[in-house]
Amino acid sequence: MNKVGKILAIDDNEDILFSLKLLLKQHVELIHTESDPELIPKLMKQENYDVILLDMNFTKDAISGQEGYHWLNRILEIDPRAVVLFITAYGDVEKSVKAIKAGATDFILKPWQNEKLMATISSAIKLRKSKEEVTQLKTKQKELNAVLDQPFNDFIGVSPEMQTVFATIQKVAVTDANVLILGENGTGKELVARALHRNSSRKDEVFVSVDLGAINENLFESELFGHVKGAFTDARADRPGRFEIASGGTLFLDEIGNLSLPMQAKLLTVLERREVIRVGSNKPIPIDIRLICATNMPILQMVAEENYRQDLLYRINTVEINLPALNERYEDIPLLAEHFLKIYAKKYKKSFGPLSKACINKLYDYSWPGNVRELQHLMERAVIMADDNNLQPSDFQINTGHSQQSDVELDSYNLEEVEKNIIQKVLKTNQGNISKAAGELGLTRTSLYRRLEKYGL
């Protein structure tokens, strides 16, 4: 049998120490014994013990147990995760219970039964391993969050529109208010969500991001609320949903506008009750999350058209943050371009001078339907393909989308009729995708919506 566990036993009775060593050396990896408690700090510095067996009373104070409490506190100061078992006489059980309240894990009665002693120590070793695993998981989570946050340090801007966004984040982040982020694809909605999390009281807890647009409706409940073993064909084990995993931290639901009405109803129930019920179970599980949602869809219009529940909208948008499209914050283009240039120059081990005025002008001349994400990809491609240390306008492979000959037939030369026909054609070409159509027309989504309303489209 494999020997597991490192044990430190402290008792001023040498006979007890001898008995412990004789018994435990058969079962554990390491057993150290010591009669002088003053050496505890030194011993703990030299070795990482799984369990510490500590006498309740020492010769200086053989009755009250105060020395035992004192050394328990010292041990926990040195290692808050320490697992301490008191060695105590029958008459000291009341003191031992008090010691457990003070931080001890359990106590062992003298004289002990070997089987019971080993069972207690074995449980204590498992507890220590569990504590270490939890600590490692928390450490990994912090490191993972740091890694995940690393690519999101490009949330920058000097434009008035972005300064408004930054100010709102600063006000809202410290609260637990639900936030709805509105903006086109590629504007940085997840960056806002992470910025809110990093500046909140939950920053040391988990940030869970869910793309609702990528979740099959049949798996919606299982993914978000979890399931129990046997709930459906492939449910081979109990599994927590995203709400449970995010409990204590922040849950970011992206593409919240993509939910069908039945899915909206299920989500609303969970948000109202602050609890989830796993698929296949009837046991409610409390949740504690900070909810942040995002969408690129006209959610207010969807509510007006009864395609989105108004009560759910009220739940998710205590505070609303509107992210401007890149073509609404042109003064940020040079700043972002230089930022991405530095990132990718470092990544691909290249060196570049500042962007020329000609390069900046070419970036200005584009409508950026893909927003900041498109600019980021453009800069990465330019860095990879560049032949020298100064980027040229020709290094930016911008597809303006105007190379194809227009096949819009003009039945009238009335400008409003022409505009209406062009909008209809572009919408049809882009299968009704407002963001793509707006980008191709060189308009913002808001401007396009105004024209749709104007022409009754």
Automatic annotation (TrEMBL):
<dbReference type="InterPro" id="IPR025944">
    <property type="entry name" value="Sigma_54_int_dom_CS"/>
</dbReference>
<keyword id="KW-0804">Transcription</keyword>
<dbReference type="InterPro" id="IPR058031">
    <property type="entry name" value="AAA_lid_NorR"/>
</dbReference>
<protein>
    <submittedName>
        <fullName>DNA-binding NtrC family response regulator</fullName>
    </submittedName>
</protein>
<keyword id="KW-0238">DNA-binding</keyword>
<dbReference type="InterPro" id="IPR009057">
    <property type="entry name" value="Homeodomain-like_sf"/>
</dbReference>
<feature type="domain" description="Response regulatory">
    <location>
        <begin position="6"/>
        <end position="125"/>
    </location>
</feature>
<dbReference type="InterPro" id="IPR003593">
    <property type="entry name" value="AAA+_ATPase"/>
</dbReference>
<dbReference type="InterPro" id="IPR025943">
    <property type="entry name" value="Sigma_54_int_dom_ATP-bd_2"/>
</dbReference>
<dbReference type="GO" id="GO:0000160">
    <property type="term" value="P:phosphorelay signal transduction system"/>
</dbReference>
<dbReference type="Pfam" id="PF00072">
    <property type="entry name" value="Response_reg"/>
</dbReference>
<dbReference type="InterPro" id="IPR001789">
    <property type="entry name" value="Sig_transdc_resp-reg_receiver"/>
</dbReference>
<dbReference type="InterPro" id="IPR011006">
    <property type="entry name" value="CheY-like_superfamily"/>
</dbReference>
<dbReference type="Pfam" id="PF02954">
    <property type="entry name" value="HTH_8"/>
</dbReference>
<dbReference type="Pfam" id="PF25601">
    <property type="entry name" value="AAA_lid_14"/>
</dbReference>
<feature type="domain" description="Sigma-54 factor interaction">
    <location>
        <begin position="155"/>
        <end position="384"/>
    </location>
</feature>
<feature type="modified residue" description="4-aspartylphosphate">
    <location>
        <position position="55"/>
    </location>
</feature>
<dbReference type="InterPro" id="IPR002197">
    <property type="entry name" value="HTH_Fis"/>
</dbReference>
<keyword id="KW-0597">Phosphoprotein</keyword>
<dbReference type="InterPro" id="IPR027417">
    <property type="entry name" value="P-loop_NTPase"/>
</dbReference>
<dbReference type="GO" id="GO:0006355">
    <property type="term" value="P:regulation of DNA-templated transcription"/>
</dbReference>
<keyword id="KW-0547">Nucleotide-binding</keyword>
<dbReference type="InterPro" id="IPR002078">
    <property type="entry name" value="Sigma_54_int"/>
</dbReference>
<dbReference type="GO" id="GO:0043565">
    <property type="term" value="F:sequence-specific DNA binding"/>
</dbReference>
<keyword id="KW-0805">Transcription regulation</keyword>
<keyword id="KW-0067">ATP-binding</keyword>
<dbReference type="Pfam" id="PF00158">
    <property type="entry name" value="Sigma54_activat"/>
</dbReference>
<dbReference type="GO" id="GO:0005524">
    <property type="term" value="F:ATP binding"/>
</dbReference>
